[in-house]
Amino acid sequence: MKSVHPSSPSFQPGRHLEVLDEPVHDAARDAEKMTSPAVCTACGAVYSEGHWQWTSPPSHAMQMRCPACRRMAEGRPAAHVAISGAFAQQRGGEIAQLVREVEHREKTAHPLRRVMAIESREDELEVQTTDVRLARDICVALMDTYNGKLNVDYDEGDKLLRVKWVT
Ligand SMILES: [Zn+2]
What we know:
Elements lengths: L26 H4 L7 E3 L5 E3 L2 E3 L8 E3 L2 H8 L4 E6 L1 H5 L1 H18 L5 E6 L3 E6 L2 H14 L4 E6 L4 E6 L2
Parallel strand pairs: 1-4, 5-9
Antiparallel strand pairs: 1-2, 2-3, 5-7, 6-7, 8-9
Bound molecules: zinc ion.
Zinc ion binds next to helix 2.
């Protein structure tokens, strides 16, 4: 359960994505020493010169699991996007399709940006991602597509982006 932080501002309409401009680091994971080059044994992404890329691994690449595959194996998303309201219920299929399109575009350039799950609940659609920036891009795409009828709120503690349909 999410605890309410006393100093949290109340829900405000408009875009709040500036909070995500600085990538949020998973301190424990980032502290791990990365040996370059490395190749992920699960997805084949290659870590070289400080970036994960889709490329052929050199023969001496160290074998490991990339952070995205680890998150997926552990069921530990970096961010959630919760889309609520009548909008989410009525247009769930359409929204899921848009989310997958954004993922495809981002993942092609950034191997660690993936959608872990799209879950349909009673009153909301929840998207789990392996990367906070992908969650932000999904929100931007939703707002661009549905033209200003969405409010976005971000809970930094929970890494939760709440998108609310406003009629
Ligand atoms: Zn991987």
